[in-house]
Amino acid sequence: MSKQIRISGIINESIADGPGIRMVIFAQGCRHNCKGCHNPQTHSFDGGELIEIEAIVEKIRKNPLLDGVTFSGGEPFEQADAFAVLAGEIKKLGLNVMVYSGYTFEHLIKNQNHIKGWTELLNNIKVLVDGPFIEEQKDLILRFRGSANQRIIDMEKSLASGNIELADL
Predict the structure, then answer these.
(1) What is the pLDDT of residues 107-147, one digit of tens each?
(2) Which of 2, 11, 72, 136, CA to CA, is 20 to 30 A from 36?
């Protein structure tokens, strides 16, 4: 595997970006440009750094404390083919993948067959936090999301049933 991915950065251990201790990988590049975005430095598609996926996998492999890995952004679905490869490797390690996306579940499902990597990435996600950040709905009390419109979706159950099933985190 010699595929590269453009990232803004990595947090080696976080308890704020999903359940348990998680590595957080920030995608570089986002078209949503949500007003009040927590990570505006991730919007440019030219910023960040290119890194080998295998280098990230090795970093994950070396940390026995991790419960899972979170993809944040930027927008991971802008590089879905690369993030799908990374998610598949993470699952092989016995860890789960959580993804923050400005796209809604409905949009991702509707367009998954038209955009390279979307189906593969969707199939490797355990939890999806969907929808754009809406500054007027910002709520600091919400767990693992920034605004009230965002949903925490159990992807395995949702894909199996064809209906949105909220995750119990």
Answers:
(1) 999 998 888 999 999 999 999 999 999 999 999 999 999 99
(2) 11
CA geometry: angle 34, 36, 41, nearest 5 deg: 75
Distance (Å, whole) CA 22 – CA 34 = 25
CB under 8 Å to 5, separation ≥6 — which residues?
A: 27, 50, 51, 53, 56, 79, 82, 83, 86
Omega of the bond prior to 74 within 30 degrees of 0, cis?
Answer: yes
List domains and CATH numbers for the chain.
4-161 (3.20.20.70)
Rounded Cα distance between 4 and 2, Å, is 7
CA distance 57 to 68: 12
What pTM was estimated for this model as a whole? 0.95
For residues 92 and 145, give the distance between their C-alpha atoms in angstroms, rounded to a whole number: 27
